[in-house]
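Following up on my earlier message about thymidine-5'-diphosphate. Here are the inputs again, as you asked, copied directly from the submission form:
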Amino acid sequence: MKTLLVTGGCGFIGSNFVRLQLEAHPDQTVVNVDALTYAGNPENLADVADNGRYVFRKGDVTDREFVESVLKETRPEAVVNFAAESHVDRSILDSGPFVRTNVVGTQVLMDACRTVGVGRFLQVSTDEVYGSLGETGLFTEETPLAPNSPYSASKAAADCLVRGYHHTFDFPAVVTRCSNNYGPYQFPEKLIPLFVSNALADKSLPVYGEGTNVRDWIHVLDHCRGIDAALRNGTPGEVYNFGGECEMTNIALTKLLLKLTDKPESLITYVTDRPGHDLRYAIDCSKAKRDLGWEPEVPFETGLAETVAWYRENTEWVDRVKSGEYLKYYEEQYGGR
Ligand code: NAD
Ligand code: TYD
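Thanks, got it. Here's what our run produced:
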């Protein structure tokens, strides 16, 4: 592939993916389309800004004219769609931007790709479209969609559109669904970067409910390698699940983060539970292992320790992204706790 276009490349996973693509495919140009919302930070890619194979175009994926003009200008062979509103709690406060970007944005991108003739489209989706598990069992690609939050509902709607476009138009799309990511450059509103940055600042860690909810954690680079494998070797029309095979309750993870930051458990504050809070996510990724030759490589203990070290070393990055718009959101979500 000569040119790959990604959307949302200034966000957490997108920026890790762009960097990995530039390193792993030395003959390939990467075009990054990003609207630079509160979560999109060009600083995440400051180290590649001068790379001659990196092209940035600021704009909104819901803007058909803009999207089509960038596709015509750069002529990518493939598009990977990361652009999204990605935080469940924000979707509970206001679902409008989620429907706009996650649903309409995906439709606009696919229409523009069909018009211009892009050969491959990869939709980056989430295991949250499957809803919640009880104490046992795993999500497979055959698990029925049963989204429980406005965020996951918007992602499931986009997945359904992708399916419809593949079925109706033979649109060459692949969908990937991954569990909870962690790693460097994650916006400090999600559990791990929020708790690490709060702990380092001796602020309380707001655990929802009793902290018994379970998530399956995967290092962001393992997710990015999976997307790359699905992009190049996946079959159009297929869905591939990725997970870290690393389940943990929120409270166990919180205590581990306090150990890694050398902070006392007295920083833990139990706060009102998230409405509709999914109990447990856990992924069966045997299809990706079998069909894509992929598997998660980063051991959780190593990846988490490195991530905590990254946040320790990058307190200025955290301070800068925590300023402005984010502070208003924090006040609304946690009421100053
Ligand atoms: P993020 O919130 O860190 O980044 C989203 C990026 O999209 C930002 O750079 C933002 O500026 C950009 N964006 C938002 N609206 C846009 C628009 N209308 N037009 C153009 N750009 C826009 O998100 P993330 O955590 O990196 O997630 C990336 C993708 O991966 C999302 O689709 C998300 O649903 C999916 N995903 C995330 C996780 C996770 O654990 N974070 C797990 C599975 C799947
Ligand atoms: P989050 O990182 O928001 O990811 P998701 O909701 O997409 O899984 O949350 C991970 C888990 O941590 C989830 O069970 C909610 C919980 N949580 C808290 O207990 N406190 C918090 O302040 C946040 C942001 C999340």
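One observation from looking it over: Residues 7-8, 10-14, 34-37, 39-40, 60-62, 82-84, 86, 101, 105, 124, 126, 155, 178, 180-181, 187 surround nicotinamide-adenine-dinucleotide (ligand 1) (CB under 6 Å). Hope that helps, and feel free to reply on this thread.
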